[in-house]
Design brief:
- The complex is a heterodimer of chains A (240) and B (593).
- Chain A contains seven helices and no strands.
- Chain A has 240 residues and is mainly alpha-helical.
- In chain A, helix 3 packs antiparallel against helix 4 and helix 3 runs antiparallel to helix 6.
- The longest helix of chain A is centred in the last third of the chain and has 32 residues.
- Chain A is flat and about 70 Å long.
- Chain B is an all-alpha fold and 593 residues long.
- Chain B has one domain: Cytochrome C Oxidase, Chain A.
- Chain B is built from 14 helices and two strands, in the order ααααααββαααααααα.
- Chain B has a two-stranded antiparallel ribbon with strand order 1-2.
- In chain B, strand 1 and strand 2 form a beta hairpin.
- Chain B is globular, with a radius of gyration of 25 Å.
- The N terminus of chain B is likely disordered.
- Classes of the chains: A mainly alpha (240), B mainly alpha (593).
- At the A-B interface, helix 1, helix 2, helix 5 and helix 6 of A face helix 5, helix 6, helix 7 and helix 8 of B.
């Protein structure tokens, strides 16, 4: 639980510190300034939906930090056999990086006001993201075909759970992506989709970071007891 | 409110947006059923939560019947009893208290008190309620599935929660876990709204430090809930996989009825960590809104500014921060490393400091105040009593050596009911008596209210105070029957019977409250706009009940904090937040510190 403790302390620390900064030298019982704009007093001057996304990312961070914590705790169990990371995951990671790059490029195009660039960028993002999800499904297929079923080992269970939750977050992002793309396809102005594109960009980068963290988690936990990979399955038999 | 700014430079900062684009309902259904108006959603949340809370109240009555008069009621068997315990706990903590404070009061009060027309994402807000309702219906459905609802205890500890032999181990537990998952998804949608609305939609002049403490409490509790509920979500999913797919996240190797089960190596303590990582902040998710609301009730009805407003805000921040590092004090008996116990006992005692500070400030606000013994004030004072009582026993249980022998006894039941059941419920009652006039335009009947208060307050003391003694005697909690045990004297059984009688009376008397709610809606005394002469913005609306958009043509502008009661030199004993300086008789507009 140390991981999640540190993450949550960081989040709560930021929140409490920020709120404390807003309130430290204020004496509301004395002040009677006429109604100045609240934004002059340190509120965030961002569109609400951006703040909303920020808060949601904090919630998602809490979720993944908890899972990583649980992963470490469960790893101490005697029956743990770390899953050898399938090679295909490197490819998938590359595809996800590309989708993030494409999204960033789309954002640049949206800033410049180039609707054609936005269109191409969004389509490229979609292709790469669906490519990543298909790749993940393919890895699942490959793993279960070689005997790494979800129940065979707690490491496998965690692998499926983590990738599934990450994939579902991506699907949620793709829903917003689909709405934006539809609007662009129907001839919307750049200004009408600029904010959506920005939000998607932030979300894509965030999910890339989460994936890199999860991937690093899978890579950094050294195989114990049994070092079978899907390639050597014939020699050492299905993991059990 | 448009979700999309049309141009980066055209984005108008929220407080300067005089008119926001509101959703305009056209039909009855659009106005009252599929409503995107936070006020209506708040009322929907409240009614649903109270309805499901009544179910849980009946369950507790049945439990008490069994404990007070064992072998009398044939319809209560051990399985039923455990199911009732479980459902009572889960409903009360999650589906009543959390939903009512944040979904109910949060939705109704946040936009009104900070001077906004609505929540920033009204559509998401509406979806949030309907997901909550769906979660409640799923939970209620679990009473009727084969095997009935789960009887695993509200903590749902594995492995027993999903093992054969525990009531509802097949269907009941699944419905419970799915219902919780939906609740969390729905809550997250609502919670995003509450946080962003408080941050972004305050009216001109409503600085953070001019917000009423009610808003501070709800705001911080929402942040806690957003970060803590994922822990319950994760544990629900993982237990679900253990149950349906046969994974071993939590399930150790087990032999059941001579059969080796498929699970191996899972860690039940992992579940306990995850559960209490949610479970302890949950206490403060319920307590912080209660703290905030009770501060406002006391200030309004004692006609005094709240003592130490800044301290109150900082205490809320401190409690919020600390509430994430005390969870394992629920797990002293789980066999964890003694140094962990030391750490968590220390943090538990530290969190008592800001909490005690709040209690002092409430009492000091009352000190030499012009106390009006209205029904909300009675409930607020009642809260201070029960909260101090429950808080002090919390200090006992926060210490490892005291907790170990008491952990599985009625002492714990007495403690947490005092501190997080009775106390928040008293605040909820007080808040309903306080804000009902704004919601309906009519006052609740005062005589019925006072009767309701005295029976509830004295009655709950009669229930929970003696339970501490039962706990000292070692009477175990969760047990269906405790007969024929040498260490439990006959007097303990008599006490149990007395407690049951008190519980039934308190339970039955809530009918008076419900009757009052309905009767006053039609026959109550018209309230006017500001019956309590309060300063906060919700009492300054042009209409009572407030219409869609809350504040008529123009949003109010705020010039002062929320606690200008009995200001020296000013004739009126309160100055509304939106009254410009120098406009009330005797007010010079200058104030010395």
């Amino acid at each position: 639980m140390t991981t999640v403790l540190l993450v949550l302390v960081a989040i709560m620390g930021t929140v409490v510190w920020w709120l404390f900064r807003q309130t430290i030298n204020v004496r509301p019982w004395v002040e009677r300034r006429p109604g100045e704009n609240v934004l002059g007093d340190g509120a965030l001057s961002l569109p609400p939906v951006k703040v909303g996304l920020g808060v949601f990312l904090a919630v998602a961070t809490s979720l993944f930090a908890l899972l990583i914590s649980a992963y470490y705790m469960r790893m101490a169990g005697a029956d743990w056999t770390t899953l050898a990371v399938p090679k295909a995951l490197w490819l998938n990671t590359g595809v996800l990086v590309l989708s993030s790059v494409a999204m960033q490029w789309t954002r640049g195009a949206a800033k410049r006001g180039a609707i054609a660039g936005v269109r191409i960028g969004l389509i490229a993002t979609g292709v790469f993201t669906f490519g990543f999800l298909a790749g993940q499904l393919w890895v699942w297929q490959q793993l279960s075909a070689s005997g790494y079923f979800v129940t065979a080992n707690p490491a496998n269970s965690f692998f499926y759970l983590l990738t599934a939750l990450h994939g579902m977050h991506l699907l949620g992002g793709l829903w917003v992506w689909a709405k934006t793309t539809t609007r662009v396809a129907r001839g919307a102005e750049v200004g009408a989709v600029r904010l959506s594109v920005e939000l998607c960009t932030v979300y894509w980068h965030y999910l890339l970071l989460v994936w890199l963290a999860l991937f690093a988690l899978l890579l950094s936990t050294p195989p114990r007891q049994n070092s079978c990979t899907p390639d050597t399955i014939a020699i050492c038999g299905p993991a059990r | 409110m448009s979700y999309v700014a049309h141009d980066e430079s055209a984005f108008v900062r929220p407080a300067e947006t005089e008119e926001m684009e509101l959703y305009h309902p056209k039909t009855f259904i659009g106005k009252y059923i599929w409503s995107q108006d936070a006020k209506v959603i708040g009322i929907q949340y409240s009614i649903t939560a109270i309805a499901v809370g009544l179910v849980a109240l009946v369950l507790s009555g049945i439990m008490r019947l069994q404990l007070g008069f064992p072998n009398t009621f044939s319809f209560i068997d051990p399985s039923n009893y455990l199911q009732f315990v479980t459902m009572h706990g889960m409903i009360m903590v999650v589906y009543l208290l959390t939903a009512l404070f944040l979904g109910g009061f949060g939705n109704y009060l946040i936009p009104l008190m900070i001077g906004a027309r609505d929540m920033v994402f009204p559509y998401v807000n509406m979806i949030s309620y309907w997901i909550y309702l769906f979660a409640v219906l799923l939970l209620m459905a679990s009473f009727f599935v084969p095997g009935g609802s789960t009887g695993a205890g509200w903590t749902l500890y594995p492995p027993q929660a999903i093992l054969e032999g525990t009531p509802g181990a097949h269907w009941g537990i699944i419905l419970m876990l799915v219902s919780l998952a939906f609740f969390i998804i729905g809550f997250t949608m609502g919670g995003l709204n509450y946080v962003v609305t408080v941050l972004q939609a305050r009216t001109r002049g409503m600085t953070l430090m001019r917000m009423p403490l009610t808003i501070w409490g709800i705001f911080m509790a929402t942040i806690l809930a957003l970060l803590a509920f994922p822990a319950l979500f994760v544990s629900a999913i993982m237990m679900m996989l253990d149950l349906t797919l046969g994974t071993s996240f939590f399930m150790p190797a087990l032999v059941l009825k001579g059969q080796q089960m498929d699970h191996s190596g899972g860690s039940p303590v992992l579940f306990q960590h995850l559960f209490w990582f949610f479970g302890h902040p949950e206490v403060y998710i319920v307590a912080l809104p209660a703290f905030g609301i009770v501060s406002d009730l006391i200030a309004v009805h004692a006609r005094k500014n709240i003592f130490g407003y800044r301290m109150m805000v900082w205490a809320i921040l401190a409690i919020g921060g600390l509430s994430f590092i005390v969870w394992a004090h629920h797990m002293y008996v789980s066999g964890m490393n003694p140094y962990f116990g030391f750490f968590f006992a220390t943090t538990t005692l530290i969190i008592a400091v800001p909490t005690a500070l709040k209690v002092y400030n409430w009492v000091l606000t009352l000190w030499r105040g012009n106390i009006h013994f209205t029904v909300p004030m009675l409930f607020a004072i009642g809260f201070i009593f029960t909260f101090i009582n429950g808080g002090l026993t919390g200090l006992f249980l926060g210490n490892v050596p005291v907790d170990l022998p008491l952990s599985d006894t009625m002492f714990v039941v007495a403690h947490f009911h005092m501190v997080m059941a009775v106390s928040p419920i008293l605040v909820i009652f007080g808040a309903i008596y306080h804000w009902y006039p704004k919601v309906t335009g009519r006052m609740l009947n005062d005589s019925m209210g006072k009767f309701h208060f005295w029976v509830t307050f004295v009655g709950t003391y009669a229930i929970y105070f003696p339970m501490h003694y039962l706990g000292f005697l070692g009477v175990p909690r969760r047990y269906y029957a405790v007969e024929n045990l040498d260490f439990i004297p006959q007097s303990a059984h008599s006490l149990n019977a007395t407690i049951t009688v008190a519980a039934l009376i308190v339970g039955a008397i809530q009918v008076v409250f419900l009757y009052n709610l309905v009767w006053s809606y039609f026959r109550g005394k018209p309230a006017g706009d500001n019956p309590w002469q309060a300063t906060t913005l919700e009492w300054q609306t042009a209409h009572t009940p407030p219409k869609h958009g809350n504040f008529g043509q123009t949003l109010p502008v705020v010039y002062r904090w929320a606690y200008d009661y009995s200001v020296p030199g000013v004739d009126a004993d309160f100055i509304p937040q939106n009254q410009p300086p120098g406009t009330s008789a005797g007010d010079t507009g200058e104030k010395s510190s």
